[in-house]
């Protein structure tokens, strides 16, 4: 170990441009979370709604070399901790704020809700309030309708409480492998053992866009969950990261970049767009 530091110093002395290049490079890390980030090669590659915001930021910061990298969420957070790195869309938590420099809010995202077949809406109406929100507690505890979920996924406190509190319930159907949400929706579509699926509204539209399922579904927000979640650009919490985030804040000027919002809403079901606009006005008056 004692020989490593002299070597590093020698490299910096002999190749000072290498250190400078690192400061002038932004490594953008992306988890595969379509339709927000689309890493899959093909027609939709790099056309997710988060990709649109990233392209805008890159074009506004031409003085930097921008490098596109892919990783899972765990590795992304690790890279931000140990090196100069950024991610276009992160949720802010107290633990992350210790090592992530966050921008001002960039996006208003809808929370998880339930996806059902449109033709079966009457079965769910007893649990829907006048504002169009469904009580997940009443739906689960006062009906025999079966919930479809993905193994190991976290949905939100109210939903997770039901799942963890009823591990052996016949009214919870768990999908374990493959493109899990798509598999659940396919089972829902043929009405064979699942009555509703928990997920984000944009997940369904993504399946419809790709022709995996037909547009026979509707989305209902959940009463017990927060109305929306905010997304932020996040970079390494150091002098370099603070400089990058400061520039990004100046680029966005405290607004919800309109093409970004429009792209996100393009992936929302019709019934969710009006609600999303309401939340946007609350955050970006």
TrEMBL record:
InterPro entries: CHP02285. Keywords: Signal. Residues 1-21 form the signal peptide. This is Solute-binding protein family 3/N-terminal domain-containing protein. It comes from Maridesulfovibrio hydrothermalis AM13 = DSM 14728.
């Amino acid at each position: 170990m004692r020989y490593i530091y002299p070597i590093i110093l020698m490299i910096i002395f002999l190749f000072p441009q290498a250190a400078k290049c690192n400061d002038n490079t932004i490594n953008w890390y992306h988890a595969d979370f379509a339709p927000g980030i689309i890493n899959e090669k093909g027609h939709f590659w790099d056309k997710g709604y988060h990709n649109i915001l990233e392209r805008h930021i890159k074009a506004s910061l031409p003085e930097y070399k921008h490098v596109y990298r892919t990783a899972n969420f765990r590795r992304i957070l690790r890279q931000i901790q140990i090196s100069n790195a950024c991610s276009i869309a992160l949720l802010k938590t107290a633990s992350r704020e210790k090592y992530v420099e966050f921008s001002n809010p960039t996006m208003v995202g809808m929370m998880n809700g339930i996806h059902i077949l449109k033709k079966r809406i009457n079965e769910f109406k007893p649990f829907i309030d006048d504002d169009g929100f469904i009580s997940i507690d009443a739906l689960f505890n006062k009906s025999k309708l079966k919930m479809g979920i993905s193994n190991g996924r976290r949905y939100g406190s109210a939903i997770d409480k039901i799942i963890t509190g009823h591990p052996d319930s016949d009214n919870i159907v768990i999908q374990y492998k493959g493109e899990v949400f798509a598999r659940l929706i396919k089972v829902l579509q043929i009405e064979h053992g699942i009555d509703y699926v928990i997920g984000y509204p944009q997940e369904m539209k993504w399946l419809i866009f790709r022709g995996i399922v037909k547009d026979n579904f509707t989305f209902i927000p959940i009463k017990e969950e927060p109305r929306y979640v905010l997304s932020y650009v996040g970079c390494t919490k150091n002098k370099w990261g603070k400089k990058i985030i400061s520039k990004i804040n100046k680029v966005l000027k405290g607004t919800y970049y309109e093409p970004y919002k429009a792209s996100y809403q393009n992936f929302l079901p019709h019934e969710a767009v009006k609600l999303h606009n309401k939340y946007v006005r609350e955050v970006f008056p």
